[in-house]
Write a structure and sequence with these properties.
Blueprint (H helix, E strand, L loop, with lengths): L1 E11 L3 H8 L18 E3 L8 E4 L2 E9 L3 E6 L4 E12 L2 E12 L1 H31 L10 H10 L4 E3 L6 H4 L7 E8 L22 E4 L3 E7 L3 E10 L2 E10 L1 H33 L3 H7 L1
Antiparallel strand pairs: 1-7, 2-3, 3-4, 4-5, 5-6, 6-7, 8-9, 9-13, 10-11, 11-12, 12-13
């Protein structure tokens, strides 16, 4: 086993009580600190307090100690051995020191993953939390963190992937597109806090293909085109905290069936790829939690 200890600190020119009040909102619906939507949100099964169980992304932990406005300690769960902790310490009436400490014991394989990838990602997430503390508490960030090429690479590799679902009943434009449908499928992803909820923002999901908009509602956009061999519609539904890319196809004659027999082999891959790319691109372009809190 290898012991890992990782420490990050920052002096914030704001009263400790101001920063501590922000810390108490970690993991809540109005969390101003955790850097969503670029990173998966911190979520718990109950309000922040000792025993609250949750985590962010694939990292799981439980609140082991909580001193409101001053300190939160999280014990790793799911077989991990260790903890991480964030504290706020006054330095004077108008400044404080924020510290994040991670302490863990890792087996050799996990220690290698930590050294190659997770250390850089972890450090960036903590720095972005500190950025949000500064942004909300003082109105500015003296030196915002920059994501390194390594962090950007692992961010792309670790980004969530669409899951196959039934075409939702709420995708009414898609369901009513044709009197007869020969093929349909749907791929879905969760919306992260701060991501756009307007279907128009997702209109460019079919990257590289200029299909016209043939229908629009408050929650759905329908793109598509008719051809001699088949009629195609792509539905983008944004509802219930999820975005769904659905496809419906109507085939014409033998030529259409032969053509689509080839296309349907690559269609799932392309649909997943396009939805995942746009999902990540919109997350990267969205205001971070601190920016949203500062505006609000």
């Amino acid at each position: 086993m290898r012991t890992v200890r990782d420490v990050h600190t920052r002096t914030v020119h704001a009263p400790a009580d101001t920063v501590g009040a922000l810390l108490d909102r970690l993991g809540g619906a109005d969390d101003p600190l955790f850097p969503t939507p670029v990173w998966p949100p911190m979520r718990f099964d109950r309000p922040l307090g000792v025993g609250a169980d949750g985590g962010h992304g694939f990292i799981r932990y439980r609140v082991a100690a909580y001193e409101p406005g001053r300190r939160i300690r999280f014990d790793f769960t799911g077989g991990e051995d260790g903890w991480h902790e964030i504290t706020v310490r006054p330095l004077g009436p108008d400044s404080c020191r924020v510290e994040h400490v991670l302490h863990s014991r890792l087996r050799p394989a996990k220690a290698a993953v930590w050294s190659l990838a997770l250390r850089a990602v972890h450090g960036t997430v903590v720095a972005e939390i500190f950025d949000n503390i500064e942004r909300v508490a003082t109105g500015r960030v003296a030196a915002p963190v920059r994501r390194s090429p390594r962090v950007r690479l692992f961010h792309r590799l670790l980004w969530d992937r669409p899951r196959a679902v039934e075409l939702p009943a709420a995708a009414r434009l898609a369901h009513r597109a044709f009197p007869r449908t020969d093929f349909q499928d749907a791929w879905q992803m969760d919306l992260l806090p701060g991501m756009p909820q307007e279907p128009a923002a997702w209109e460019g999901v079919l990257r590289g293909a200029s299909f016209p908009v043939v229908g629009r509602t408050d929650t759905e956009i329908l793109l598509g085109e008719d051809a001699r061999h088949l009629d195609f519609r792509a539905s983008v539904l944004v509802a219930d905290g999820r975005v769904t890319l659905g496809t419906v196809v109507r085939l014409h004659r033998t030529a259409g069936r032969l053509y689509f027999a080839l296309v349907r082999r690559v269609h799932p891959f392309m649909a997943r790829l396009m939805l995942r790319r746009l999902h990540r691109r919109l997350a990267l372009a969205a205001p971070t939690a601190g920016e949203r809190a500062a505006v609000g």
